[in-house]
Specification:
alpha+beta; 9-stranded antiparallel beta sheet; two-stranded antiparallel sheet; 6 helices; 11 strands; 32% helix; globular; CU044_5270-like
Length: 287
């Protein structure tokens, strides 16, 4: 079955072929990215530099810092977050206990290389090759920052390692995948930029297609993940009919101890969330 047939079969609800091989998996990722790029052609949409964007997300409560029960399987309850952002980042609003709270300034300008403020996001490339090059630069900058912080800590406490080992090619791919995941989970993108993000994933040779999957909100989609010998699986869920981003999930692939000294067990879900609404809407409005 060809890559296009894989996507078409999923869209039509026909059974997925048994255990598609690696070639099919890679081809299906490319087909998904190509389909999103074709769908994005035409008008660029209404998203501009002085608008309000509404984002609604649901999250599974997971153990953080060793606190709370470990999550295996679907959670018994969900946490909901609703936020409105101005694309010039001069104001925001959040829903707290059923009441709208407004604020000025931006909450999305971190000190690290990965910037999630809208002026930066709106300036991202809208073609896959340029998007991947941009993402690779972020990964390089994050690695430099990590090494600099480790060396600074080593000078203060000589017993600590002077710097982490350089990232392997597989780890660099996984880091690039995580950058795409953070982008998609944090904002509403123009269709062409979203297609470029999918196209960037298709150009990362370790990214695989897992076929049918359901996100945290129960919506049917496909799952993409980087395939390398790591201790966690990081997944993205995408609707292949609309090419909308649905959500993410991080699952432990084996038992290990995290940097804080807390034990993690195989199959434990370390993070799980879905973006259930992303649209242009004024504060307090959901449509």
């Amino acid at each position: 079955m060809s890559a296009d047939e894989l996507i078409t079969a999923f869209r039509d609800g026909r059974p997925e072929p048994p255990a598609p091989g690696r070639v099919h998996q890679v081809s299906a990722v490319t087909a998904l990215a190509d389909g999103a790029e074709r769908a994005a052609r035409g008008p660029g949409g209404a998203l501009g530099p002085h608008q309000w964007v509404y984002l609604k997300s649901v999250y599974a409560p997971t153990r953080e810092g060793g606190v709370g029960p470990a999550l295996f399987g679907r959670p018994g309850k969900l946490l909901t977050r609703e936020m409105w952002r101005r694309t010039d980042e001069k104001a925001f609003a959040v829903m707290e206990n059923g009441k709208l709270r407004r604020g000025s300034g931006s909450k999305f300008v971190p000190a690290g290389p990965l910037r999630l403020d809208y002026p930066t996001l709106l300036a991202l490339p809208d073609d896959a090759a340029s998007m991947l090059a941009h993402i690779r630069k972020i990964v390089d900058a994050q690695e430099r920052q990590s090494r600099a912080l480790a060396q600074k800590s080593h000078r203060r406490k000589p017993g600590l390692p002077p710097a982490p080992a350089p990232l392997t090619p597989a780890q660099r791919d996984a880091s690039a995948f995580d950058v795409v995941s953070q982008y998609l989970d944090s904002a509403l993108f123009r269709a062409r930029q979203r297609a470029a993000l999918y196209g960037a994933l298709a150009k990362i040779t370790s990214v695989r297609y897992a076929g049918r999957a359901h996100d945290l909100a129960g919506r049917r989609g496909v799952s993409l993940y980087p395939d390398f010998d790591g201790r966690e699986r990081h997944e993205l869920f995408i609707d292949p009919k609309t090419y909308s981003y649905l959500g993410f999930r991080t699952t432990a692939l084996g038992d290990y101890t995290d940097p804080g000294g807390f034990g993690v067990r195989k199959g434990q879900i370390l993070g799980w969330g879905s973006l259930t609404a992303a649209k242009v809407a004024a504060p307090g409005k959901r449509s």
